[in-house]
């Protein structure tokens, strides 16, 4: 059934933005024109008829041959029209001027564009229908990037420092820069996206440090509502909701994500590796491995690992049946195998020791079978023996502990290599921990939003807090995974746990609900909520430190095919001017004027980043090319050192600041004020973003 769905989906995507029924209209139109003694093909139908196989000339009458030739011509014409429509759609999606126009001042060009986009969006698209029509990320002109870079660092430098930076940038542009730029343009001609593959490899997969905390991020449950306090029941509905989402992804039944309030589609490529995916460690670089399907999940409980089959004879188990199976695991009194309890610490520590252990001790025998069960699972689940949530007499403190638990847990009770791991707590609260290399936070946020909504409002629970549905008592029990952990592996587990625990202890995490006002109040002031928050962060940092630093905010580039993120350098001259005016006692009218200028500047920076005119990804790729060619640039080298020195201010240890800004997800790499700029952590092979 899935194969037939897949074939049909390929056909539907292949003809989009046309539909299959449009072939019939083309064929009828051609035949009707021929019936009126007219030749719309200008002789092509006759030529097709001449080249029909001899067997058809014998078996078909002259009229039948003409009819068949007309249908062949109709099909060719239809395919040509599809290509033309797809080319037109790509041109339309390449138009981004609409984003820079002010509300109420829409140009005639944009009005025509909106009309055409509405016409193209009438057919109901599948999840990946737009993929081949999305434009490729453009390579900005090197002079534009350097000018924007110099503008971004001007508020942070003295006149002499800025002059030195300017001279280095000009020398780079006139010498090495254009050579590196040519290589990027060549790559952009054949690559789907000239940034994303290098970004995934050098920023994520080549990092040799722990991915726990440094890369992985978390998502929370509802803060004020817990649908059930029964741990097994919450697990049953959560697993069911996730498997239903996976079914929608596989069948491409999800509506493509769009820019809010518009019909503009966003790239859906990140959805492909959401399930059945693992990041496997390597000595030099990790690898993302994805399996087409998986009918089971991997579960951790009190130091034991289990494989739970959620399908039987092609049928997804009901939520009540999954709850029944989960309860079997909770009631299982068997102790962990020697060395099994803290085995997950290998995924929390440094990557090279884990890669070496995996190659030496997990490549054969029972260890390989058990590891395969985890790595090939749809996703990973931890049945936590703690209670978490915003509860009790200290809701603020409990919320902090809840966040830290989702971020790193005990450093051994999560499998940080999985694309995402679900945590179900003893009191029914849940959450997730997601690995970052395969996708960015908004993709996981969409998954988590669907899961929470389906769990609470669609699947629901009985009056006593259990899942709905019937149970087939003949279900085979969950399969306990067997391990043979050698003393060498146990020693490495202890070493990795020490590294991970030190990292976890170094994290100060404070999460708090803010209810004084929200984005609605900000919008009433005709201010962008994002700009409001970023400028507020600049003000807070200035009051705390008495100065400014390089500031990173992530912007998506999914308007382009296989787009990931771009840096918005939200510390601008305008935001600094506002902060200085406010702290310097300027008049209220002057401060309001400067605040609006800073807000407009930030919005413009965000739009430029979204439309491929950012700074950091372009410079990152130039840096990668320079390393491939074995050439050195004083400009790129000086920028790297400057970024590192700024990055150590306000980011190391307890000075790490995070802003939860992704729909309940708190990723270490998103929407944060830090000193980290381009190549701020260039540790492995001098290429680490």
TrEMBL record:
InterPro entries xref list: Carn_acyl_trans (IPR000542), CAT-like_dom_sf (IPR023213), Cho/carn_acyl_trans (IPR039551), Cho/carn_acyl_trans_2 (IPR042231)
Residues of the Choline/carnitine acyltransferase domain: 137-639
Keywords linked to the UniProt accession: Acyltransferase, Membrane, Transferase, Transmembrane, Transmembrane helix
Pfam families per the UniProt record, alphabetical: Carn_acyltransf
Ranges that cross the membrane: 15-36, 67-89
Family: Belongs to the carnitine/choline acetyltransferase family.
Name of protein: Carnitine O-palmitoyltransferase 1, liver isoform
Origin species: Characodon lateralis
Taxon lineage: Eukaryota, Metazoa, Chordata, Craniata, Vertebrata
């Amino acid at each position: 059934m899935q194969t037939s769905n897949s074939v049909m989906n390929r056909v539907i995507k292949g003809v989009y933005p046309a539909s299959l029924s449009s072939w019939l209209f083309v064929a009828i139109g051609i035949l009707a024109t021929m019936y009126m003694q007219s030749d719309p093909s200008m002789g092509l139908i006759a030529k097709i008829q001449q080249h029909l196989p001899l067997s058809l000339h014998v078996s078909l009458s002259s009229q039948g041959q003409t009819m068949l030739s007309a249908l062949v011509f109709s099909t060719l014409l239809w395919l040509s029209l599809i290509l033309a429509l797809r080319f037109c759609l790509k041109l339309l999606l390449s138009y981004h001027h609409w984003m820079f126009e002010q509300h109420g001042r829409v140009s005639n060009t944009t009005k025509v564009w909106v009309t055409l986009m509405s016409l193209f969006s009438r057919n109901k698209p599948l999840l990946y229908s737009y993929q081949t029509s999305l434009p490729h990320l453009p390579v900005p002109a090197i002079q534009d990037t350097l000018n924007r870079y110099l503008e971004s660092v001007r508020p942070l430098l003295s006149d002499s420092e800025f002059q030195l930076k300017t001279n280095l940038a000009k020398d780079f542009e006139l010498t090495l820069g254009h050579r590196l730029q040519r290589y990027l343009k060549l790559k952009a001609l054949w690559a789907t996206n000239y940034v994303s593959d290098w970004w995934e490899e050098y920023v994520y997969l080549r990092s040799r440090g722990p991915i726990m905390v440094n890369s992985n991020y978390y998502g929370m449950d509802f803060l004020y509502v817990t649908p059930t306090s029964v741990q097994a029941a919450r697990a049953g509905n959560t697993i069911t909701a996730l498997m239903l989402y996976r079914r929608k992804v596989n069948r491409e039944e999800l509506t493509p994500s769009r820019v809010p309030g518009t019909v503009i589609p966003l790239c859906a490529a990140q959805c492909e590796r959401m399930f059945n995916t693992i990041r496997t460690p390597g000595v030099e670089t990790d690898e993302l491995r994805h399996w087409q399907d998986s009918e089971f999940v991997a579960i951790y409980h009190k130091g034991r690992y289990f494989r739970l089959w959620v399908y039987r004879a092609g049928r997804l188990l009901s939520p009540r049946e999954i709850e029944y199976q989960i309860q079997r695991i909770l009631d299982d009194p068997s102790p962990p195998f020697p060395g099994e309890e803290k085995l997950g610490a290998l995924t929390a520590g440094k990557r090279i020791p884990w890669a070496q252990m995996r190659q030496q001790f997990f490549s054969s025998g029972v260890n390989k079978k058990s590891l395969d069960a985890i790595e090939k699972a749809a996703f990973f689940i931890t049945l936590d023996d703690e209670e978490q949530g915003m509860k009790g007499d200290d809701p603020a403190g409990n919320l902090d502990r809840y966040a830290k638990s989702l971020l790193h847990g005990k450093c051994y009770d999560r499998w940080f290599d999985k694309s995402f791991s679900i945590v179900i707590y003893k009191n029914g609260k849940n959450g997730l921990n997601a690995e970052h290399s395969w996708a960015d936070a908004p993709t996981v946020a969409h998954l988590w939003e669907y899961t929470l909504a389906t769990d609470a409002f669609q699947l629901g629970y009985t009056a006593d807090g259990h899942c709905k549905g019937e149970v087939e008592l003949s279900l085979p029990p969950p399969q306990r995974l067997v391990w043979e952990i050698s003393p060498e592996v146990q020693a490495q587990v202890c070493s990795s746990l020490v590294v991970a625990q030190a990292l976890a202890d170094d994290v100060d995490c404070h999460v708090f609900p803010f209810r004084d006002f929200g984005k609605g109040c900000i919008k009433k002031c005709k201010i962008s909520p994002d700009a409001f928050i970023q400028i507020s962060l600049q003000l807070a940092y200035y009051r705390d430190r008495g100065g400014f630093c390089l500031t990173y905010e992530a912007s998506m580039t999914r308007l382009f095919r296989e787009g990931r993120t771009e840096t918005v350098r939200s510390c601008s001259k305008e935001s600094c001017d506002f902060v200085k005016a406010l702290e310097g006692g300027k008049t209220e009218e002057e401060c309001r004027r400067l605040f609006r200028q800073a807000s407009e500047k930030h919005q413009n920076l965000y739009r430029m980043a979204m439309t491929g005119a950012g700074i950091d990804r372009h410079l990152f790729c130039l840096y990668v090319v320079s390393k491939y060619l074995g050439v050195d640039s004083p400009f790129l080298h000086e920028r790297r050192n400057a970024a590192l020195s700024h990055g150590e201010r306000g980011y190391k240890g307890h000075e790490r600041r995070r802003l939860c800004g992704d729909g309940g997800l708190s990723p270490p790499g998103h929407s944060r004020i830090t000193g980290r700029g381009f190549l701020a952590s260039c540790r492995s092979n001098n290429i680490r973003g």
